[in-house]
Design a protein that fits this description.
Layout: H1 2-10, E1 26-27, E2 41-49, E3 54-61, E4 80-85, E5 93-97, E6 99-100, H2 104-107, E7 112-120, E8 126-133, E9 145-151, E10 156-162, E11 170-177, E12 183-189, E13 195-201, E14 208-214, E15 220-227, E16 230-236, E17 241-246, E18 253-254, E19 274-281, E20 284-291, H3 305-308, E21 311-320, E22 323-326, E23 333-334
Parallel strand pairs: 6-10
Antiparallel strand pairs: 1-23, 2-3, 3-4, 4-5, 7-8, 8-9, 9-10, 11-12, 12-13, 13-14, 15-16, 16-17, 17-18, 19-20, 20-21, 21-22
Length: 339
């Protein structure tokens, strides 16, 4: 053994060690974004704004810093906020709120806007699927609808129409384009133990409800996407994010470990992660999620501004075998691209 080592040393200098090449992208801010109006950014969805050459984030803006709002009325009366990134998703600036026009028959006199999903059709038009609550309430026991709106610029949303779905209490639309044509929408049916249901459409206009698809546990905010040879569904189960895998976007198998169940160590990230979006760009994918930074330890059950406020975070998805995982404490480099 010693002779072999000496011979190797005498044969010339050792080959240089290959250093790992860091993934392309800019280092993401931590937290990624805080809303400057109510400090209640949640439920993010990220889409490319083709006309502006930037990325836009739509989010529910809970009224975390507003005073005198009893019960859960601070989560009602919300408008959809918009933030913009011009550096491929690494940092975001506030743009304002989406201009959403809803008839009183759908929205009531004081409409609440929650958790949109936004997609772009082949003709370049944008389509929003928005949860609408017809009022501001102190509890959760009220109707909720999913409403379809259209836009040419991502800012002004018109032509509202309710999507007929399984009950009068449905929330959190999540859409994906089907490989054979048409679209599929997953959503949370609160009347059925908060199970995940789905519906199909050939054109984003007419929809056929297909019923229940995931019911092994309660969950909301379904996000479905194709990546690395499989379909994936991620749902918010209030103890991190549950992950399901499918070969066909119909039958789903749950992976044992939740994402973001263990608190992180970064700024505003020391709690579980909630309601997410995923942006896939080639063989890489990023998970955008929100946290309630003040809900930890002995303060978790309090109901002050610190417990109500929420922030947006981002981490990169990784695949090990058939299991999705993240390293939320590792620096995240984001490269959503410019096309």
């Amino acid at each position: 053994m010693l002779a072999s080592a000496l011979a190797a040393a005498q044969s010339g200098p050792a080959a240089p060690v290959q250093q790992a090449v860091p993934e392309r992208g800019k280092l993401a801010a931590k937290p990624l974004f805080r809303d400057p109006v109510f400090d209640g950014a949640a439920d993010p969805v990220v889409i490319r704004n083709a006309a502006r050459g930037s990325w836009w984030m739509f989010y529910t803006n809970r009224r975390a810093t507003a005073t005198g709002l009893p019960g859960v009325s601070w989560i009602h009366g919300t408008r959809i906020g918009i933030a913009e990134s011009r550096d491929e998703g690494a940092s975001w600036s506030y743009l304002g709120t989406a201009d959403i026009e809803l008839p009183a028959a759908l929205a009531g006199a004081e409409p609440t806007h929650w958790a949109p999903d936004v997609v772009r059709a082949d003709d370049g038009s944008y389509h929003m699927f928005l949860t609408v609550v017809p009022g501001v309430f102190t509890d959760w026991n009220h109707p909720r609808r999913i409403v379809h709106l259209t836009s040419s610029d991502l800012r002004t949303w018109r032509n509202a129409r309710e999507i007929p779905l399984a009950s009068d209490r449905v929330i959190d639309a999540g859409l994906a384009r089907l490989p054979g044509g048409g679209w599929r929408m997953w959503y949370n049916n609160e009347r059925d133990h908060k199970s995940i249901y789905y519906a199909d459409s050939p054109d984003l206009i007419s929809w056929t409800d297909r019923g229940k698809v995931v019911a092994d546990q309660a969950g909301e905010g379904p996000k479905v996407f194709q990546w690395r040879g499989a379909w994936w569904m991620i749902t918010d189960v209030w103890r991190g994010l549950a992950v399901y895998r499918s070969p066909d976007a119909r039958t789903w198998t749950r992976q044992p470990a939740n994402l973001l169940q263990q608190p992180g160590t970064g700024i505003d990230d020391g709690v579980i992660g909630g309601h997410c979006d995923v942006v896939v760009r080639g063989d890489r994918a990023w998970l955008f999620y929100f946290t309630h930074p003040g809900r930890h330890g002995s303060d978790a059950k309090k109901d002050g501004v610190e417990q109500r406020r929420s922030t947006i975070q981002v981490t990169e998805l990784m695949l090990e075998g058939e299991t999705l995982r993240v390293e939320r404490d590792a620096p995240t480099r984001v490269a959503l691209g410019s096309d």
